[in-house]
Write a structure and sequence with these properties.
The protein is of the alpha/beta class. The chain contains 32 helices and 30 strands. The longest helix is centred in the last third of the chain and has 22 residues.
Length: 890
């Protein structure tokens, strides 16, 4: 560590902040490490004293951890999402003399029953605060102890997949030997820049993601948060060439790519699949890496310099690894445990073997113990058994747990990993955990993770945890989409039946229970199997019918979600969702689109309420990233204190270049094309659907207007357009036609010709409001569908408040419109239209003041929206009473 200063001003740490970054050079890091170590020694901290680290990733965390090691003390990295019970256990078991934390975390620690005289050291406190870590920074040289190989350097606590966290002390010799092994393999080069998107309380990111890059004098990039956009930002701004990640990260990484491809249409999806197969073939059979060339645009988006994806902490799906390789990235897969500092083997990019975890590290010995698995027979001439290991990186034993330490080692001193595997041509393959191996009543031995993978491949299943009940396989299943009980049961049953047909009878589950809550997992994505039995019994007994219509309690959530709701803005948003959707089962994992029914302009209403209740305004990019309620909570947390721009007051400030182009006037050729399409559409509506119009005289002739129609069919905009003459249509813009400009290049061009404003399900409501404000400011006409989407039943839906906000700010003649017949002609879900009469009723103009007097609601915009809804409803009633005016049915 004393050699860090030799790198001078070279970047050691680049931590991205909300709007910028914080850079530490190697000289700065070295100075902080040494001065903190000096300060600890002067404050009376001695060799072997334990000090907990309880904070999020930040440069000060790294400097403090290194300072502890240099001073001879023992750092104890802790997960900030530990529950109170586990946190209290770890602090007590580790006998921590001090806790390095933040001001926010200190408030939580104050609620725990800590030992007397435990000192809090705050890494984010001002220097005048007596608890500030800066009080420890002492530049005066002091003789610090020289570490011995068997001295404990860091004390990690396991994630608790099978019970309370266990202390794993790793010595200087353990960690030093692991670093030498990594150095010998030459996985990275001196030109690499390492992105570290993992919490540092795990040994894998601490040793491989921090200590190893610093040993090689490489820059480490810390993202602002672990959301997808911030990772992309870190890749771009940090110029990362390598990522130290876990399988869940790469799974989300690939899913994001696939989602974008599928959103581009069927042709794009087929082309992508073909190119992926071509790249995989070239790499497997011709030893040619062409992925980075044929997926050039993809690499531009995710960082043109990114080359290496290092995976550890859990098993990486072989199919996913192969796809990432085919896309042009190199994959390095490490295998090991906390107890092995952490890696035992590695699958290197230049000798990558599909499905394997690679060859043993230099200096590490691994063998297969078939005796650990009862009656295990060789498979395909390969010995299958428990993986056991020995080497300088293997720990000496658990803290304060002599019996478990004895059980962890064989009589001849080999460490029992608890994993089942085999060797083939020198490569190690891991089949699963001994603890997850189930012996059925028929005598078959089943690896639950294999069964879970088979069932999870069905699209109807989001998560599945397999367990044993009275000698049979049963499962706890989270459906892909929630919904009414019968719908969820049908979806899951179909998926289970389909997967079961592909499995031998002894690997099929005999019973299952459905839950809408995420399975309990560690931070690295491993299922906490000791909690599955209780969850299964609870779900099976009650069927969750009693709790289907209430929000998930905070104490039921994972540590990650509980930590998320510590933020006041996220808590406010959660409470808003619970009030707004009282008939839904609200959990962090559900989809706003599929489970809460938030689509199109529904986002408008919701984001405005979020802004009003918490002061946070979500950007259009933020809305596009949201796939779950958890994503929404993360986005509002990241948005901070809500210093957003009012889209009605400063609409141009809201829009980016892509949004502003929708406002550009049409050129002569485009104008001629639009006129031809208008004439064709008008003629089609009048001839094929015998369009009947009433109230055309209510459209003002010499001033702009805002048309407010109901929305039951894709034909509604065509019917309304056919009502207008060409001069009116040239001055008219449209909002609220869900997804019209997002399908492909042709639809985007047609959307521009038709002056359709891009208010879509994946866009922010603020963009739609801003576009509407610009149109009204420009004295143009606007058609706005205020229901927020198509009515699935044909009935009039509640109007969203956005229309009220527009009219409150921009007094314009508002004209209610009712379109009938389109629901019969082409309702939601029907593949093609039927030819039947369509009728458009145009009401009399009204203004905002009139609507505010007539409407119900607490706020002016609510009164305007409600009054408009009543006027459209009155037109509907009038339509029913005068059906004799309609042309006769064919």
């Amino acid at each position: 560590m004393d050699s860090l200063t030799e790198q001078g001003e070279k970047t050691a740490l680049l931590a991205l902040t909300k709007k910028g970054h914080q850079r530490w050079s190697y000289r700065q890091l070295s100075d902080r490490v040494l001065s903190f170590a000096n300060g600890l020694a002067r404050a009376g901290f001695k060799r072997g004293d334990t000090v907990a680290l309880f904070a999020e990733n930040r440069p000060e965390w790294i400097a403090a951890a290194l300072g502890l090691i240099r001073s001879g003390a023992v750092g104890v990295p802790l997960d900030v999402q530990l529950g109170d019970q586990d946190l209290a256990h770890v602090l007590s078991d580790s006998d921590a003399r001090a806790i390095i934390t933040t001001r926010q975390r200190a408030k939580r620690l104050a609620t725990l029953d800590l030992r007397p005289n435990v000192r809090l050291i705050l890494v984010d406190a001002a220097s005048e605060d007596e608890r500030s870590w800066e009080r420890f920074l002492n530049q005066d040289a002091i003789e610090l102890p020289t570490a011995r190989a068997d001295d404990v350097a860091v004390l990690f606590y396991t994630s608790g997949t099978t019970g309370p966290p266990k202390g794993v002390p790793l010595s200087h010799g353990n960690i030093g030997s692991q670093l030498e092994m990594v150095k010998e393999l030459q996985v990275v080069t001196e030109a690499d820049r390492v992105l570290l998107p993992l919490p540092l309380h795990h040994v894998y990111p601490f040793v491989i993601g921090v200590l190893a890059p610093l040993l090689f004098n490489l820059p480490i990039i810390l993202p602002f948060s672990l959301t997808g956009p911030q990772l992309l930002r870190a890749l771009s701004e940090g110029g990362a060439t390598a990522i130290v990640g876990v399988p869940r990260l790469y799974s989300a990484f690939y899913s994001g790519i696939i989602s974008r491809i599928e959103a581009s249409g069927q042709i794009a999806r087929r082309v992508f699949t073909l190119l992926l197969a071509l790249s995989s073939f070239a790499q497997t059979w011709l030893r040619l890496r062409i992925g980075k060339t044929i997926f050039h645009s993809l690499h531009e988006r995710f960082g043109r310099n990114l080359r290496l994806l290092a995976s550890g902490g859990a098993a990486l799906d072989p199919d996913l690894a192969a796809k990432l390789e085919a896309l042009g990235w190199q994959i390095a897969i490490g295998y090991g445990l906390t107890e092995t500092s952490p890696l035992l083997s590695i699958n290197l990019p230049n000798e990558w073997r599909r499905g394997s975890v690679g060859k043993p590290f230099p200096g590490v010995k691994i063998r297969i113990d078939p005796g650990a698995i009862e009656e295990q027979e060789p498979t395909n001439d390969r010995t299958v058994g428990e993986i056991v290991a020995r080497g300088p990186n293997v720990f000496a034993g658990y803290r304060n747990l002599p019996e478990q330490t004895q059980q962890a080692f064989s009589p001849d001193g080999w460490f029992r990993t608890g994993d089942v595997g085999y060797f083939d041509d020198g490569f190690l393959y891991v089949l699963g955990r001994v603890s997850t191996l189930i012996k059925t009543e028929s005598g078959e031995k089943i690896q639950t993770e294999d069964v879970e993978a088979a069932y999870a491949s069905e699209t109807g299943i989001r998560e599945i945890g397999v367990l044993e009940e009275r000698g049979k396989l049963v499962a706890l299943i989270v459906p892909r989409r929630t919904g009414p009980g019968d719908e969820a049961e049908t979806t899951v049953r179909t998926a289970v039946e389909a997967a079961s047909k592909r499995l031998p009878s002894y690997e099929r589950i005999s019973d299952y229970a459905i839950t809408h809550d995420a399975l309990p997992r560690t931070r690295l994505g491993k299922i906490q199997r000791h909690l599955l039995v209780q969850r299964f019994e609870k779900a099976k007994k009650a069927g969750e019918r009693a709790i289907e219509a209430r929000a998930m309690a905070v104490e039921e959530m994972s540590g990650e979600d509980r930590a998320l709701l510590e933020n006041a803005v996220a808590q406010s948003c959660w409470e808003l969702l619970a009030r707004r959707y009282p008939g839904k089962r609200l959990t962090p994992d559900i989809s706003p689109q599929f489970d809460l029914g938030i689509d199109s302009l529904e986002w408008l209403d919701l984001t405005l309420e979020i802004a009003e209740s918490s002061g946070v305004e979500l950007t259009d990019e933020a809305i596009a990233r949201i796939e779950t309620v958890r994503d929404l909570l993360r986005e509002v947390t990241e948005a901070g204190e809500g210093q957003g721009i009012d889209p009605l007051a400063q609409p141009y400030e809201i829009l980016g270049a892509n949004q502003k182009r929708w406002l550009e006037p049409l050129g002569p050729i485009a104008n001629l094309t639009a006129r031809f399409l208008y004439a064709f559409g008008r003629l089609s509506m009048r001839l094929l659907f015998r369009l009947h119009i009433e109230g055309l005289e209510n459209l003002p002739k010499n001033k702009p207007w805002l048309l407010i129609p109901n929305h039951v069919s894709y034909l509604d905009p065509f019917a309304i357009a056919a009502v207008l003459n060409w001069n009116q249509l040239r001055q008219t813009y449209w909002a609220g036609w869900t997804g019209i400009v997002s399908a492909n290049a042709i639809m985007r061009f047609l959307g521009w010709l038709g002056k359709i404003l891009p208010v879509e399900p994946t866009r922010a409501a603020r963009t739609g409001l801003a576009l509407g404000a610009i149109i009204l400011q420009s004295k143009k006409n606007l058609v706005w569908f205020p229901e927020g989407g198509l009515s699935p039943t044909g009935d009039l839906q509640p109007f969203k408040p956005g229309i009220g906000m527009l009219l409150e700010r921009f007094p314009t003649d508002a004209i209610p419109v009712f379109v009938s017949g389109t629901y019969k002609a082409w309702p939601v879900g029907q593949r093609s239209p039927h030819l039947c009469p369509i009728r458009v009723l145009i009401g009399k103009p009204c203004n905002a003041q009139e609507l505010m007097r007539e409407g119900r609601g607490q706020k002016p915009y609510e009164k305007i929206a409600n009054a408009l809804q009543e006027k459209v409803a009155a037109l509907r009633l009038s339509s029913v009473r005068t059906t004799d005016l309609l042309p006769p049915e064919p």
